[in-house]
Known about the structure:
mainly alpha, oxidoreductase activity, MPAB, 280 residues, Oxygenase MpaB family protein, MPAB/Lcp_cat_dom
Amino acid sequence: MPTHPTRQSVPEGDDLFGIYRNMVLYDFQKEFHSGFFVSYYRNFTIPSTAKVLAERGEMQHRPMKRSYDTAIVIHEIITGGFDSERGQAMIELLRRVHKGVPGTSEDFMYVLMTLLVLPLRWIEKHGWRKLTSLEEQAAVAFYAELGRRMGLADAAPETLEEAGRFLDEYEDRKLAPSPEGAMLLDSTVEAIKIRLPKPLQPMTLRVLALMMDKPQVTTALGLKRSPRWLQVIFNAVVRCRAIRARMQPLPTNPAFVPGKIAVSVYPGGYTLDQIGPKAS
Ligand code: HEM
């Protein structure tokens, strides 16, 4: 249940993981949906990571399953918590799928920080209200713990500012188009399409470019940069949505219910043993 009942109140207390859960499941559900979407495609913009992902083949051969599974793993941990049985099963899966994956500890930290920083930047820019510093702290604490549980070699940044600096600095050095990144994007376009509102589906690549927060990301994805007038219209539409949200009650249905997501890949919901690549 939401920790606070109205749009006039904000979360309090010291249950940081609970506060983050509340942000994702209730208070900023639309914003996180878009923000995680932006994070997912970031992996294609780092040539070395794109190469690893392309070589494994999951994203090309099962793009829908791969993208839903990624969302499910993260949301299961957020919803159930690190110590729940389901949360632990998902951490176990994360440790298993990344065993032997070539990548420096910096590469791993970067992927983790995309999940922290990009949805929060989306909220900062497009959200129905700004985050409180307690909410920012809650998100930082969640990903620091996720990194620890995954066994990452380095500790995650301790503040959002530091996390943002790390992400930007890494991207300044590494963002670039690559044949593997282009191939991954190509196979994933179908998965993107189906998540967009129907009228936007024919313009999938255009919308994807509009959603990206940096022009270098659009270029690294091999997408055409949007003309300025279109970006202005897009931002205005998202702003209207935020203004409308401000006038409506907070959602009381969570954005995610474990096992229940009904999507083409799991029409009747899923069990945890269906999640993740087949063990080889
Ligand atoms: C801490 C940072 C990271 C997080 C939170 C993360 C998250 C995830 C998640 C949720 C999955 C499960 C998807 C599924 O079940 O199909 C996954 C799978 C995978 N990840 Fe990561 N990832 C991280 C870093 C990386 C990095 C840096 C690389 C590559 C250099 C990578 C490569 C893979 C591969 C190869 C898989 C297996 C599925 C496939 O072959 O596509 N991950 N990751």
